[in-house]
Design goal:
The chain is α/β, with parallel strands linked by helices and about 350 residues long. The chain contains twelve helices and twelve strands. The chain has two domains: about 1-100 and about 265-355, Isopropylmalate Dehydrogenase; about 115-260, Isopropylmalate Dehydrogenase (3-Layer(aba) Sandwich), CATH 3.40.718.10. The protein is globular, with a radius of gyration of 20 Å. It binds 1,4-dihydronicotinamide adenine dinucleotide (NAI) and magnesium ion. Belongs to the isocitrate and isopropylmalate dehydrogenases family.
Length: about 350
């Protein structure tokens, strides 16, 4: 089957790690059942905005919708001050394609981290945004609209419970030892002791996903964790988590913390998932401090290509990519400076391709 993948490197190290992910996809062994890839290069990002006045060109959106079955996004450099006319293209993309859940697996490769962990963070992907308006005196009023809707919370919650069941099924079907031994578990992150209206609705809605579907989700344990103690507990006993589901901003923060536990932001992938489209995207940003120097760890982007395949229904191709990556990490010889090595982006990519 032919699969057309949109490649959107965007800014900074996105331009180094997205070509690496493509090289890995092209190195997958060919079989009758494996897909045949075609790629379309698409523009977006802050640098593109500086040249053309738009961060997400219409053509990128149209070609994604009409020609692609999935996409890989690198990273954008978003300025920390407000730039007139600029807004983040990845936020816009998530919105336009209704990619309502950001799925972020964070797992350690045995023997490479101090504490083992194997968790899947589901980050609600469409809410908690902001707006600005001008008051009667022409002065600016900034609102952090902490919108939490029953609709979005239910979709994110449903994704979390489904993923918990899927992971459980996968663990049962493989002989490899798994870190998580108990029944599948979903941890709901919130701060409804303080934000009782917004986070209260989030908590109640996600809980109701399980409570109103006892036949489907009865086997899944449900627990809650306030976001601050979530950070504390995650650093002390990361092995205590299976699937974690959080509102947009909390999910963002927790995932960078989890990345520290596995050794680098350069290792953690994500998939922006909707009902009709998937965009793979490393969790890290454009890393201007190392961009253009072949120092970027390509593994987050390569694993994101795996996640993209997984969510498009090609689980065995995805598993091959994960195994090749884990193999290189376990060997520990070839790694980029973020993991204490001195290999280049290209050398790590080549090592993974060789294993494939
Ligand atoms: P960052 O994730 O770009 O970098 C944080 C630190 O981790 C840096 O020291 C960087 O060198 C390191 N790092 C990140 N990815 C790495 C990789 N693959 N290999 C090795 N080291 C890696 O976050 P930062 O510095 O806060 O933001 C930089 C820019 O990226 C900002 O403009 C920010 O807005 C943007 N950003 C974009 C995101 C996206 O596109 N989804 C997400 C996060 C930040
Ligand atoms: Mg982030």
């Amino acid at each position: 089957k032919k699969l057309t993948i949109g490649l959107i490197p965007a800014d900074g190290i996105g331009r180094e790690v997205i070509p690496a992910a493509r090289q890995v996809l092209e190195s997958l062994p060919k079989s009758d059942s494996s897909p045949q890839f075609e790629y379309i290069h698409l523009d977006a990002g802050f640098e593109y905005f500086q040249k053309h006045g738009v961060a997400l060109p219409e053509e990128t959106l149209v070609r994604l919708r009409e020609e692609c079955q999935g996409a890989l996004f690198g990273a954008v450099s978003s300025p920390s001050h407000k730039v007139a006319g600029y807004s983040s293209p990845i936020v816009a993309l998530r919105k336009h394609l209704d990619l309502y859940a950001n799925v972020r697996p964070v797992a350690s490769v045995s023997g490479t981290t101090q504490k083992p962990l194997d968790m899947l963070i589901i980050r609600e992907n469409t809410e908690c945004l902001e707006r600005i308006e001008t008051d009667a005196n022409g002065l600016r009023v900034a609102w952090a609209d902490r919108k939490i809707s029953e609709f979005a919370s239910r979709r994110a919650g449903t994704m979390a419970f489904n993923m918990a069941l899927m992971r459980d099924k996968l663990r049962r079907s493989t002989s490899a030892p798994s870190l998580w031994q108990g029944p599948p578990k979903v941890t709901i992150v919130h701060k409804s002791n303080v934000l009782s209206v917004t986070d209260g609705l989030w908590r109640e809605t996600v809980r109701a996903v399980k409570e109103s579907n006892p036949d489907l989700y009865g086997s899944v344990t449900m627990e809650e964790q306030l976001v601050d103690s979530m950070v504390y507990r995650m650093f002390r006993e990361p092995e205590a988590f299976d699937v974690v589901v959080a509102p947009n901003l909390y999910g963002d923060i927790i995932s960078d913390g989890a990345a520290a536990l596995v050794g680098s932001l350069g290792l953690v992938p994500s998939a922006n998932v909707g009902d009709n489209f998937v965009v793979g995207e490393p969790v890290h940003g454009s890393a201007p401090d190392i961009a253009g120097q072949q120092k970027a760890n390509p593994i987050a982007a390569i694993r994101s290509a795996g996640l993209l395949l997984e969510h498009m229904g090609y689980a065995s191709e995805a598993a091959r990519i994960y195994e090749a990556v884990d193999g290189v990490l376990r060997e520990g010889q070839i790694c980029t400076p973020d993991l204490g090595g001195s290999s280049t982006t290209q050398e790590v990519t080549d090592a993974i391709c060789k294993r494939l």
